[in-house]
């Protein structure tokens, strides 16, 4: 259904994807190149796990909510260029695997928690896609609430001052205050509010809160030739992402949702790895938007969602 130039992907089994719209929105949670501080948007792929028979038999009514890590910007084919939504994102793969009778994908690049209940430019609130008979909801949100794009931009800029130190970490922990940790703590009740509203609108739905995949090497090693952060800041950015995922897992546990760990399965496939091994693109490419999962990364995320569904 199209609204003011924006469309959701809503599929009844025989439906075709909506046409792409001009003028793509850049993902907010993206990488920044060093010179201009501009945001950027092989091996065998893991297979999508087969759904449990009893779930496929039910006929799911599935709604996908979230930001660019759910929408799949830059991955062909784009079904909504404004929101950076791909027909090979993990929601589409999950919908196919569970045999969803109704599938509505309103994930959109740049979305944060305010866009769940409020408009995102011309796009309607994502929660409006929910129905009383919705049986499955995936939610991937939180990174944009931290302004991670701005964080990475600062990290790239200060790396020139101390390329082998940890200048970004120091700039965000002045006077003993962990600024990013504070932002994560402030985001927690916003996640709670979204989960509560999902349950209120779709009381029958199983709700899965999807975490973020491994963006940088889990062992803290650096790859300055590919990603221009200071050597010591690679491990710090990794730790902040882990902190965000830990918060999401905690909120899912408290508010009757299942947390989907996409970080663990993606270790070793971060943006520092070579093409064919990486599931995160270090810069815009034909495979996807920079600092975002490519099609193989989304297949891995779909596997993680399906494994959680089948638990």
Question: Can you describe what's shown?
Answer:
This protein is an alpha/beta fold and 311 residues long. It has helices at 53-58, 68-71, 90-98, 114-117, 148-159, 167-172, 179-201, 233-254, 263-266, 295-309; strands spanning 2-3, 6-7, 9-12, 31-32, 39-40, 61-66, 78-80, 85-86, 102-105, 136-140, 206-210, 258-260, 280-281, 292-293. The strands form five sheets. It has a six-stranded mixed sheet with strand order 3-9-6-10-11-12, with helices on both faces. A two-stranded antiparallel sheet has the order 1-2. A two-stranded antiparallel sheet has the order 4-5. A hairpin with a 6-residue loop joins strand 4 (31-32) and strand 5. Helix 3 packs across helix 10 (295-309) and helix 7 runs parallel beside helix 8 (233-254). The longest helix is centred in the middle third of the chain and has 23 residues, at 179-201.
The separation of the N and C termini measures 33 Å
Q: SSE order in H/E notation?
A: EEEEEHEHEEHEHEHHHEHEHEEH
**Unreliable sequence segments:** 1-5, 12-23, 29-57
Structural class label? alpha/beta
Shape: globular
Helix fraction by DSSP (H/I, runs of at least 4): 25-40%
Total of helices:
10
- Average pLDDT for all residues: 86
Strand order of the largest sheet: 3-9-6-10-11-12
Strand content: 5-15%
What's the main sheet like?
A: 6 strands, mixed
Backbone CA Rg: 18 Å
Number of strands: 14
Would you summarize the structure shown here?
This protein is of the alpha/beta class and 311 residues long.
What's the SSE blueprint?
Elements: E1 2-3, E2 6-7, E3 9-12, E4 31-32, E5 39-40, H1 53-58, E6 61-66, H2 68-71, E7 78-80, E8 85-86, H3 90-98, E9 102-105, H4 114-117, E10 136-140, H5 148-159, H6 167-172, H7 179-201, E11 206-210, H8 233-254, E12 258-260, H9 263-266, E13 280-281, E14 292-293, H10 295-309
């Amino acid at each position: 259904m199209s609204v003011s130039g924006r469309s959701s992907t809503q599929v009844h089994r025989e439906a075709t994807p909506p046409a792409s719209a001009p003028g793509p929105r850049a993902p907010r949670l993206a990488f920044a190149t060093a010179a201009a501080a501009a945001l950027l948007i092989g091996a065998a792929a893991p297979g999508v796990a087969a759904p449990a028979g009893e779930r496929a038999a039910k006929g799911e009514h599935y709604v996908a909510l979230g930001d660019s890590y759910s929408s799949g910007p830059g991955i062909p084919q784009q079904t909504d260029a404004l929101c950076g939504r791909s027909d090979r994102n993990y929601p589409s793969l999950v919908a196919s695997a569970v045999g969803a009778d109704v599938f509505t994908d309103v994930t959109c690049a740049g979305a944060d928690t305010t866009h769940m209940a409020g408009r995102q430019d011309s796009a309607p609130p994502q929660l409006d896609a929910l129905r009383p008979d919705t049986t499955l909801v995936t939610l991937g949100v939180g990174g944009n609430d931290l302004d991670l794009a701005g964080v990475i931009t600062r990290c790239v800029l200060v790396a020139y001052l101390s390329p082998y130190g940890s200048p970004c970490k120091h700039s965000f922990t002045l006077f003993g205050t962990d600024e990013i940790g504070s932002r994560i703590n402030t985001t927690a009740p916003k996640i709670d509010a979204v989960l509560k509203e999902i349950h209120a609108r779709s009381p029958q739905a199983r709700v899965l809160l999807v975490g973020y995949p491994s963006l940088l090497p889990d062992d803290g090693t650096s790859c300055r030739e590919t990603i221009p952060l200071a050597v010591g800041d690679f491990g710090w950015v990794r730790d902040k992402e882990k902190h965000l995922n830990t918060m999401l897992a905690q909120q899912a546990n408290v508010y009757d949702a299942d947390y989907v760990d996409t970080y663990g399965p993606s270790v070793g496939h971060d943006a520092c790895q070579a093409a064919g091994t990486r599931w995160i693109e270090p810069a815009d490419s034909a495979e996807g938007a920079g600092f975002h999962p490519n099609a193989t990364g989304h297949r891995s995320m779909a596997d993680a969602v399906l494994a959680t569904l089948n638990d």
